[in-house]
Amino acid sequence: MRWGFVISGLLILSVEAFFDNVRGPLIPVFTQTLQIDYASASLFLVWGSFVSVALTLLLLPILSRYSLRRVSLSICGLGVVAALYSFLVHGFFSLILLAVLVGGAVATMGAICNVLVMEGTDMHHRSRSMCALHMMYGFGSLVAPLVVRFFLERQISWPWIFISILPVIAITALLLKRVLPAHKKEKVQVSLSMHLTALQWLVIATFSIYVSAEVMSSMWMVTYLVESQHFSVAQAAPYLSGFFLAMALSRGFCFLSLRPSLEGVILALSLVLALFFFMLGRLGHLWAFPLVGLLGPYFPLYLSRVSRNFPLEAHRLTIWILSSVQLTLACFHLFVGKLTDRLGVEVAYWLPPILLVAALLMLGIFLISEKNRLAAQA
Length: 378
Hints:
Elements: H1 3-33, H2 38-65, H3 68-85, H4 92-120, H5 123-153, H6 159-163, H7 166-179, H8 198-219, H9 221-228, H10 233-257, H11 263-282, H12 298-309, H13 314-343, H14 345-348, H15 351-377
Helix pairs in contact: 1-2, 1-4, 1-5, 1-7, 1-9, 2-4, 2-13, 3-4, 3-7, 4-5, 4-13, 5-10, 5-12, 8-13, 8-15, 9-10, 11-15, 12-13
């Protein structure tokens, strides 16, 4: 175990989570302050996802050429630029440029933190380490809507929300500079090759559908509560915070007490519980929406399981997974934005449970294929 790598990954993901999850609660704010419709506001998420795909793929050759320290510090710099630029947003086109900067920061931070933790852990500790890493995503995401609420209730201009994360980025950068080696010995050898097996493509597709379900549930929750239940953004924000609290606590539980023999059960159960509570929320029991966050263990456990199944391709698969996820998210954000304008958010917000069912079916196919593959190797 190399704890400097792991702690650096944890801090970077907490910053990434904040950037990622201030975006959803700000969608209604953008429609009001910039006088644009939801289809146009959704492009803030769409363009962020498209840029994320390109930058995540660029990370492959960059990591092969430069040290993790240099790459990680540059990514922190991108976050600073994105936060400062928010003050220059006064219309649709400047909003799209902010989307590009924030999307780039989110994608590269999300990728590099996973690489850092994989580099810093052995196979024996990886599942729990990944749960700890993505527990930080839950806590960072929990803070984001609360910060939005704090600033909006005090009628403070929304760009200050982005500025509030700068001290954390500065602390993260100082730690990275201290714990990561400056020389190029720690370059990560990865390849952009698309020579993947059918099972690996299934893994990529499953991640894309699952993350789309998770992000559509969270990103559009505030909009659903504002438009359908007539909440204010400040009133709706705590529901989203509750979602991320449930996500963080469920991942923390796995970090503290995960038994490898129960990994498959927890993967399936997390999706079933998320689907159950989402349906309760849609039936009018709004208290259930935060409990959709119990899907939290799925991403880190599945990613860890994949890295164990394909140890030699782990870094390459991780980058392809994250790229595919961002491309899928761009399509679904665009779809939900247009559907919300045409038919209303009441209809559009049925997409998350549909995606959860699809992710559950694909997980089942993977677990059966994995079992058959291991039996054939025995």
